[in-house]
Amino acid sequence: MTQSCELSAECDTILLPFCTQAEYSQSSHFQVLLTSSPTVNSSTEKTIKKQMTKDPVGPSLIHLAIPMMFGLVSIMLFNLVDTFYISLIGVRELVAISFTFPVTFTLMSFAFGIGIGASVVISRAIGEGDHHRVQRLTTDSLLLVTLIILCVAGLSFIALRSIFTLIGATDESLPLIKEYMIPWLLGVVFVVIPIVGNSAIRATGDTKTPSMIMVIAAVVNAVLDPLLIFGYGPFPALGIKGAAIATVISYFSILLAGLWVLGRRERMLTTVWPGVSGILSSWKTLLYIGIPATLTQLLFPISNAIMTRIAADLGDSTVAAFGVGTRIEALAMIGSISLSSVLIPFIGQNFGARKFGRIEDASLFSLRFALVWGFTAWVILALFSGLIAWAFTDDPEVQGFIKQFFWIVPFGFAFHGLSQLVSASCNALNRPFHSTTINIMRLFLLLIPLVYLGSQIWSTTGFFVGIALGNLATSGIAWFWFRVSILPIALGNKM
Question: What pTM, to 2 d.p., does this model score?
Fold first, then answer.
């Protein structure tokens, strides 16, 4: 709430920085991002530009990826805090919140997709030095995600009962689900705009600010959750509704922060009306990448549901071990996930600047990084598998399966990380359908069939082996396709 109050004083000035083209061209900070001039007024500004198009590739990518890790951890903690406090209310509330995850994730996937599209096209425009286009694309990406989410949220609001009945919610859970979803849907615009805004900021080469913004959101949410859920002090006890309101308020606080950064500091927003044709042109460019990226995001919960169903046939212990494993996996893969996120603006800027050799170097560095990070994670998780199993359960059978998971599945983390990096590179090179194809191949042509086959041959052990082999096979195919075909064609055979 403190951050929100501090920023509210700036509300009256937020629109002023949405400058005209003439004012925009005067911005010393953005000039350093868009030109190669050695004359700059700030060492920090100089560093941002240099990292993306001039500094050694490997150190630059690592420098960009480290802040991303903190941002991703804060997002994970954000979700865990919500779940923890709601679990203290009761089982009914915990069940209700579990039903909301697929719906909230689906709506947020639109923001993730548009955010990826924004990062690609804005970073390329920065590399080309087209500052007017940067303004236009940034502003139009925020308008686009707002319009899409308002439409989707409105439809979800109208069909709320039907949606949750379809996915299995009972009459007992529906009132609690409505308590959470109604305030969440009413404030979802405040949730999605920062997601796209952070992607636009990362396109400049600044990964620290988006991470700081997400840390602020996590802290505000962690403070507000107990106050609004349980009603401490002057705050009313709102139960599960309080968790939704806390989420909306926390995102609203960083919405203001993000708009200040984009509008006042980076001069990336504009109030100039380009006409309907101008906006539609920007949206077409954004959606070319945004639609496939959104579809890719939606593939993961679908495939996870199918794999959970396969695990269910093997027994509750397998389901429990798989659930624990997938939660730890997100943390273990954080290095590769962070690098894949920063690859998009890095490749975009260097492509726009016609520095194709740096893109080639980035792809080779990604290969080495994915293998080193993945195999290191495997060793650590295998060595500590017993401790992890003990921390999550006292059931001997579940403990045994958790140990199996961490001895077998993380073998494929290196290869899964590599396929993630290839997928991100395809998006950055304006090949979004190649990225989607790689993910469809991994999930539905390799991973799920191998998991099913393994479970039939070797029960739970085979289930885990299938996951590892699926990731191994995907990475080999994806890397070969990328190096032999996708990358040379995208770069005009200039490798």
Answer: 0.84
